[in-house]
Structures are given as C-alpha cells and as structure tokens.
Amino acid sequence: MTSPVVDTVNLVKIYQNGAVPVPAVRGVDLRVAAGEFVAIMGPSGSGKSTLVHMLGGLEARTSGEIWLDGQRADTLNESAWALLRRKKVGFVFQFFNLVANMTVADNVELPALLAGASAREARQRRQYLLGELGLTDRADAAPSQLAGGEQQRVALARALANKPSLLLADEPTGNLDSRNTRDVLRLLGEVHRDGQTVILVTHDARVAGLADRVVALFDGEIVDDGTIGMARRRPKATVGDVVELRG
Amino acid sequence: MSTVRASVRWIRADLRARRVQALLTLLAVAGIVTALITSATLLEDGTNPWRGLFAESRGAHVWIHTKDAPDVAALSRLPGVVQVAGPYRTAPVTLTLDGKKSPVALREMSPTPPSVATPLIREGRWLRAGDTEGVIVERSFATALNLKVGGPFTVTALNGASHPLIVVGLADTADQGFYPEWTPGLAWTLPEVLARVEPALGRSESVTGLRLADGEATLPVVHGAVTLLDEEIQRMSTWREVRASMELDNRLLGLLLALFGVTGLVAAALAIANAVGGRVLAQTRDIATLKSLGYTRSQVFGVLMAEHGALGLLGIAIGLVCGQLIASLTLYGTPILPLSPIPLLAITGGTAAVVLVAVALPAWRGGLTPPIPAATAGPPRGHLSRMARVALLVRLPPALVLGTRDAFTRRVPAFLSIFGLAVPMMMITIGLGCWATLDDFLNHPERVGQAAALVVRPDKLPAEDAARIARADPQVLAVYPGSEVSALEPEQTRSVLARALGTSADPYPFSVVEGRMFAARGEAVAGQGLLDLLGVKIGDRVRMTVGGTPLIVHLVGRVVEPDQDGEVLSFGMDSLAAKDAVPPQFYSLVLRPGADPSTVRARLLAASGEALEVNRVVNPAERLAVIRVVIVALIAVLSLLGLANLLTASALGLRDHAFDLAVLKAMGLTPRQVAATLVTGTGLLAVLGVVAGTAAGASLVSGLIDLQGYTSGVGAGIGRTPSTLTLVSAAAIAVGAALLVALIPASRAARAQVPAGIR
Ligand SMILES: Nc1ncnc2c1ncn2[C@@H]1O[C@H](COP(=O)(O)OP(=O)(O)O)[C@@H](O)[C@H]1O
Ligand SMILES: [Mg+2]
C-alpha cells in the first residue's frame, strides 16, 4: 500500500511559559492512512490544537518526527512548511478566519492561485466548490454579510480549493448552532466519502461519531485509539446518519 | 511567481477597504515631494535668476569687447562655438535723469530680435524700423532709476550733444549682471539712432557674443579668442561672472530648505511607518490566515512592501508632476526653469528611500506574524497606574482617567504617535520662527544694523548743504556723516570694507551684540565675518592700513553686519585721516518711527532741487521673501502629515477598544462618556506631541538662525522666537484639530451597537 498521509513518531511539544515548561503534546505516535477520517477528542487543554497545528506546520515541534505523504516534514524551515501547506494541507479553524476585505469568491480562489493555478482554473474550482456547498449565490458577498454556518462552509471550500492531501479542522463546529453544525458535518462527510483524508478536532462526541476512528487525547498523550471496528463498522451509514439528521 | 496573482487580489481588496487612509498616504507623500520640489525650484530660481534668463534668451557664454568689429567667421570656427551674437556697436553715453547722471552702454539692435542673446521684453515692445527715438532698457537698470515705458531717456554723448530718446520697452538679459552690481546700465536702440547719437566710430566699441555647445568648456574658447584677436580685445566676460553677479547669498535659504526637507522627510517617514504599522497590527489575523494558507514570511513582507511601497512611490510620482506644475505656476509672467537634475534626483531618491525604509520596518514585523490566526492581537491589558488611581481619588471624570490609561496600553505606537506629531509641530514652530525673524528684520531694521533708511550723497552740492537739507526735514531723526574706504588686513593680501559712520562721541546706532560700541579714536567694531577673517577676538588690537593710512585698530565690539558677508570694519569719522573724512562721502539718515522712506526721499530731492542723490537702504529680508512661500507650503504639508499620524493613532485606538466599548457601556457610561474616553486617549497623545514639538521648535529656532547667521558672517543675534501668542495659538489650533479628528470616529463608535463577543 501507499505510505500513510500522516505519520508522527514520538511527537513532543513543550511551550515555554516564561521559565516554566508547559508540555502540551507528550510523545504522540499517530498514523493516518489515505482516505481516513480521524476525530481527535479530549478535554480542553489536552493538546488537540497544538497537535494539529504541528501537523500543518503552524507550530514547530519540540522533538519527534512528522512525515507527510512519506516525506519528512518536521525538519523543514518556516518557508518550506509554507510551500508544503500550499500543496498538501487545508485548514479549517474554529473562527472561520475568512479575509474580511475579500469577497467569498476571492477567499476561496486565494489558495488555488497561491498554488499556481491560473485565474481561470481558480475560478472554475471555486465555482465547483461553492456549487457543491450551496453557496453559488453568495460568491460576491463580503464574509461579514454571511451567517456563521455559511462562513464556515466558505472556509471549508477555501481549505479544499487546492485539493489538499490532508484536511485539518480544529473544532470547525465549536462556534456554530446545531443546524449549522449539521450542515458543516454533512459536507465534511461528503468530502471524506470522495476520498479526502480528514483530521477533525472536537470535544463533541456526536461530532466524533461521524469519523472512522476516534483518537482520545489527555494531557498531551493518546489514551485511546479506536481504530478497529469503527471504520469497518458502518462506513456508509455515517453519511446516511448525517443526511437523516439534516432532514 | 505563483503568489503574484493571489497577492494582487489581496492588495486590491485591502486598498478598496481603506480608501481614505490610502489616499491620505498618497497625499502626504505627494505633498512632501511637491513642497520639496517647489521650494528647491523657487530657491534655485530666486537665488539664481541667471539660469532662467540664460536659457530663455539663448544667451551667449562669452562676450568680447573689441575696438572694431572682429573676424566673426574666424570666431565662429573656434571649436565649441555654436553661434555668434553681434558684433554690436556699443557707445558709452550718459543718461541724465532728474539732474542725476548715470553711465549707460548704448548698444545697437536690429528691428528683428536676434536668435542668440535676445533681450527678453518684459514690458512695452520690441524696436521697430523707423523708431528714431526708441530705446529698450535693461530691466534692473530701469528699476533702479525708476524708468518707465514711455518715459524720457535723455542721453549725452561724449561730444556733449544731448539726445532726447524714449523708453519703448524693458527687457531682461543674461548678457550682463544686474544694475548696480554690474555697471554701466545697458540699453538697446536701432543702429541708425546709435549712429546719430555717437557718429564717431572711434568713440564706440564692438561687442560680440559666443554661444557654446558646452558652457563647461568656456576656458578653451576664451584662450582661442585671445589667441585669435590678441591686441584687439579690450575686455571679455563669461557667463560665470554674470551668474556670480546675479546670485544672492542663498546659504540661509539653503539651510532652511535642507532643514525643512530633512524633517519633512522624517515626519513623512513617521506618518508612513505609523500608518503601515497600524495597518499591519489591525490585519494580524488576516496575515496569519495568509500564512496558514501557505504564504512564507518573505512573501508576506513582499506583499506589504508592494502595497504600501507602491502607494508611496505613486505619491512620489504625483508629487513630481505637481512640483513641476506648481513651480511653473507660481511666478506667472516670469517663466521658471524646471529644477536641475541633481536636486531633483536627490529629492526623488531621498524620498523613495525614506518611504521604502518606513514601509519595510512594519512590513518586516508583519512577516513575523505567527501563522495561527486564532491568536488575536489584543492590546496588552492596561492596569490603572498610580497616577490614574490618584486621579480617580480626586474625582476626575472617569472618561479622562480611562482614556489616559488607554492612551498608553500600547507603548511603542503611543510613542510613535507622539513623535509623529511632535516632529511636524517642531518644524512648524521653526518655520514660524523664521517668519518672525523676517518680520523682525523688516520692522526693526536697526537690530540688523540698518538703522538708517536713507543714504544721501551730496553729489553736486557741498557736503554741508547736503547735511543741512537732511537735518531740516521734519521726519529725519538723526544724520550721521559717513565715508567708506578700503582697509588692508595685516598680511596685506585682501582688502575689506572700512566704514566710518558717525563719530566716537556720537556713533551711528550700530547693533552691538557683543562687547561695546566704539567711544574713542582708534576704537572700532566689526562683523563676525571680519573677526573670522582676521582670526581676532573682541579686545584685540590690529594694525591695519585704512584708506592708505596706517592705524592701530582696537576692536571693542561685534555688530550684526548684513553687508559683505560681515567682513566690514566700522568706526567713527574721527578715526579716519582728514583726507578721507572731510568732506564726508555720504550721510546716513535715521528717520522718525513710522516715517515712509520714499516720501522723505522725494521731499529731500525736491528740497535740494534734485541735486542730491538719495538712496533707500535695501533690507536683506526683502530679498528673502521667497522663504515665506516655502514656509507656508511646508506648514501645509506638515499639517497633512500630522493629520495622517493622528488618523492612524485614532484608528488604532478605536480598534483596540472596540471590545472595551461594550464593557464600558455595561459599566454604565453614557455614549458621550464613552466617546470622551476614546477622544481622551487620542487627544492626550496629540497634546503631548504638540506641546513637545512646540517646545523643541521654540528652543531650537533662534539658535538655528543664529548658527546660520554666524556661518554667513552676519553674526549671531538675529534669531527670533515666534511670539508667545503665535506659539500658543499654533499649538491650540493643532490640538483643536487633533481633538476634532479624534471626535468624529469616536462618537460614531460610541453610538454604534457593539456586540460583546466581537472577539
Ligand atoms: N502559545 C502557548 N504558549 C504556552 N502554552 C500554550 C500555548 N498554546 C497552548 N498552550 C498550552 O498547551 C496546552 C494545550 O493547549 P491546546 O493544544 O490549545 O489544547 P486544546 O486545543 O486541546 O484545548 C494547554 O495547557 C495550553 O495552556
Ligand atoms: Mg483548541
């Protein structure tokens, strides 16, 4: 088989809070295969955000190894990480983080343009994604004119614009009401069904229920990894569930 | 590069979102460049009119005076010579006007203007065929003698015959310098008129001008002409001499411009750095988002540089265009040449460098933004200082206390805001100080050593009669006899002007700024320039040859001396040898306060039956009038810069406190109090900046002007600080404008509904 999309070896992150070391991630070995949908759960402060930030290169690791698509990534410098992110990683954050001054369309086209697509390709990709996410008529709106759920859908479209091999979502529904949560989760499910590798951080068990596999983090260590069974158990039903919920 | 397209989108969106701020940056940069170019152009032109005149008249670089017409063909074959003007026959005549005689060179000129060295008609018209009496008079000569178009121009030739001619036009020329620095005066007339006035060829000379391909290569041409014409040449003049005689002392202007320029640039740099810095701070989240999408540190830096730098460079380009336009508009009538390339390049390059550095620093900081957008850029939480707590205890309004606290929650931007206002304010104060100094020159000429407004030369009358007529005038306060001779310094290498004025018992009211006035025979006072030249100090005794007579001069004081770069020795008439002192060459008249020199002059002329020569003393400030234009322009630009800084400060303050607004309202502050809090935050910075700038400017200005006075030989003691009233009103206007600028967004923000959970 092909190499895993994500592979970490004894990954450690220790923040320095003044003179006090704050260990946020303490020796995580995580291997995520292509097409997998992994939910990372854990209480607040357990190191979930720190872990996914490291996976996307937003934060430097203290020690350990990170492999993305079979390529050693933890030794990259800041710029090399940026180039890698452009091609391989899409991020969705809790607070959407759309560029306020740009229209929805421009926000979504930005990563594609950044990855070197022509204006035409970027536009086609954007039209496709916004169409898929039901936002075609909002293309020219400013982010501030959208509701929270809509903004997060735009953020999702933006994360998918450069067809990343890894989608990292840090509590994407943490700031949404239940209806919008359902919408966003349905979309994540659809994306996953199309073969997208997803790592989703949440502390909502219902959200985690959507995933193939749930990794539980506590005090920066993996305390439970529910790989077996779940993925095989009802891979199809997951999406069906969401659709039902939505109805 | 693949990021270009994405970056262009981002820049476009950002510019669209902050049109006003972008426009202000553009205006500020364009304004400073315009002001710099305009003032440099005006200075160059005002202090050196030769350049413009020479270009406009297609002047000749070399003028050759010969007995008879030279070999024009041979002259035009000299390497480097492009065109030949003339030869023109020129006769020396004497102009008699109101009983006063002035030597004039009457030069022949054709009814069709020549293509080289054309006199430039400024008033009246060109000569016409059949103008049997018409003359065109060189303008500075006409101004000095008060000649008008249509007025009489009665000349007497060497044979004594008098010819009544009429002035038909006044013209500028680069053929010779201005009257009276360059004599004799120049007038043009038709060849047949000249032949009538001076029929004898032997009593006239021939004048030929050579226009060269390269003015720098004048010397070889001069050598060539000397070799060619040899004995025939009577004298020659080159463009360098003409230019030198037209040039004013522009050191004061130059220094002022440099000062304004440098501080203007510093102020612009601060305004830009503040604006970009504020923008970067406000965009921290967006920049972090860009980085999470795959922008590298240097690409973020590049985007910010491209956006803000391009804005600055565009401002420079606009400024360049405006500068040229304004310079060509300012003195309508007299055309102005565009600035020469070196100062133009210096201004453009200097501003560009300053703009780019000012953008680069905050842009670099922007590049360092961590890529995690969740980390918001909140201000460090302020805590109530001891001062603020005391303020609350003594029951100052809460808005004042909270605003004061807010003003300093971000130390560096607060400091930059203060500094960004203080620098323009300092320069404005210095500008006002220069203005006050000029006013002081004009209103109190006695303080710059020009107590006398008129100088009377006996001319045809006996000296005693001249003195008697002058004393008889009701508005003449005092009459001081004077004589000027040359004095040789000890090493006998260079002569300086020695001026006897008044007597030791009754000295002329020189403006003594150090030491004391001369009070006995052999005592003298001197200008700074002379002290420097001789390397002596007050109290020294110097052996000098004054008017040919050896004299040991005891220097007892220093005076403010605007003439001759300060290289003037002044003493009483009694110190002068009798042959130089009796009769006095002239009388200096001090008028009663409020007397109009021209009225008195007219009265004296009438009383003496036009026999006296009465001249007004030219105040140095009259020649420096162009400074006022520079001051006004720069004050406008500096105000613009201050405004830009203020907007940045107030926008940043608003952004930082958007969250606090809800809290403040929840605490029970009324919208008005909330607005007051915001205004206090910005206003405090403004007050600090304005006060600091005014204080710095006021303490610097007289020192700076005195320093300039010292280096130009005039000597220290001329600098004036603007009046307290001027300073207070300038500061009040600045603070008032600042508060107004802060008030509008603050009151809007205070009234807006702010959701508590904005962050
Ligand atoms: N920038 C930081 N500096 C210091 N400590 C941090 C920083 N970011 C996170 N931490 C600490 O690291 C631990 C893990 O944080 P985080 O990864 O954000 O947890 P989670 O996302 O699971 O809530 C927490 O104790 C937190 O206080
Ligand atoms: Mg978290």
UniProtKB/TrEMBL annotation, chain A:
<dbReference type="GO" id="GO:0016887">
    <property type="term" value="F:ATP hydrolysis activity"/>
</dbReference>
<keyword id="KW-0067">ATP-binding</keyword>
<dbReference type="Pfam" id="PF00005">
    <property type="entry name" value="ABC_tran"/>
</dbReference>
<dbReference type="InterPro" id="IPR017911">
    <property type="entry name" value="MacB-like_ATP-bd"/>
</dbReference>
<protein>
    <submittedName>
        <fullName>Putative ABC transport system ATP-binding protein</fullName>
    </submittedName>
</protein>
<dbReference type="GO" id="GO:0005886">
    <property type="term" value="C:plasma membrane"/>
</dbReference>
<feature type="domain" description="ABC transporter">
    <location>
        <begin position="6"/>
        <end position="244"/>
    </location>
</feature>
<dbReference type="GO" id="GO:0022857">
    <property type="term" value="F:transmembrane transporter activity"/>
</dbReference>
<dbReference type="InterPro" id="IPR015854">
    <property type="entry name" value="ABC_transpr_LolD-like"/>
</dbReference>
<dbReference type="InterPro" id="IPR027417">
    <property type="entry name" value="P-loop_NTPase"/>
</dbReference>
<dbReference type="InterPro" id="IPR003593">
    <property type="entry name" value="AAA+_ATPase"/>
</dbReference>
<keyword id="KW-0547">Nucleotide-binding</keyword>
<dbReference type="InterPro" id="IPR017871">
    <property type="entry name" value="ABC_transporter-like_CS"/>
</dbReference>
<dbReference type="GO" id="GO:0098796">
    <property type="term" value="C:membrane protein complex"/>
</dbReference>
<dbReference type="InterPro" id="IPR003439">
    <property type="entry name" value="ABC_transporter-like_ATP-bd"/>
</dbReference>
<keyword id="KW-0813">Transport</keyword>
<dbReference type="GO" id="GO:0005524">
    <property type="term" value="F:ATP binding"/>
</dbReference>
UniProtKB/TrEMBL annotation, chain B:
<dbReference type="GO" id="GO:0022857">
    <property type="term" value="F:transmembrane transporter activity"/>
</dbReference>
<feature type="transmembrane region" description="Helical">
    <location>
        <begin position="414"/>
        <end position="438"/>
    </location>
</feature>
<protein>
    <submittedName>
        <fullName>Putative ABC transport system permease protein</fullName>
    </submittedName>
</protein>
<keyword id="KW-0812">Transmembrane</keyword>
<feature type="transmembrane region" description="Helical">
    <location>
        <begin position="20"/>
        <end position="43"/>
    </location>
</feature>
<dbReference type="GO" id="GO:0005886">
    <property type="term" value="C:plasma membrane"/>
</dbReference>
<dbReference type="InterPro" id="IPR050250">
    <property type="entry name" value="Macrolide_Exporter_MacB"/>
</dbReference>
<feature type="transmembrane region" description="Helical">
    <location>
        <begin position="725"/>
        <end position="744"/>
    </location>
</feature>
<dbReference type="Pfam" id="PF02687">
    <property type="entry name" value="FtsX"/>
</dbReference>
<feature type="domain" description="ABC3 transporter permease C-terminal">
    <location>
        <begin position="633"/>
        <end position="753"/>
    </location>
</feature>
<feature type="domain" description="ABC3 transporter permease C-terminal">
    <location>
        <begin position="259"/>
        <end position="365"/>
    </location>
</feature>
<comment type="similarity">
    <text>Belongs to the ABC-4 integral membrane protein family.</text>
</comment>
<keyword id="KW-0472">Membrane</keyword>
<keyword id="KW-1003">Cell membrane</keyword>
<feature type="transmembrane region" description="Helical">
    <location>
        <begin position="625"/>
        <end position="654"/>
    </location>
</feature>
<keyword id="KW-1133">Transmembrane helix</keyword>
<feature type="transmembrane region" description="Helical">
    <location>
        <begin position="310"/>
        <end position="332"/>
    </location>
</feature>
<feature type="transmembrane region" description="Helical">
    <location>
        <begin position="344"/>
        <end position="364"/>
    </location>
</feature>
<dbReference type="InterPro" id="IPR003838">
    <property type="entry name" value="ABC3_permease_C"/>
</dbReference>
<feature type="transmembrane region" description="Helical">
    <location>
        <begin position="252"/>
        <end position="273"/>
    </location>
</feature>
<feature type="transmembrane region" description="Helical">
    <location>
        <begin position="675"/>
        <end position="705"/>
    </location>
</feature>
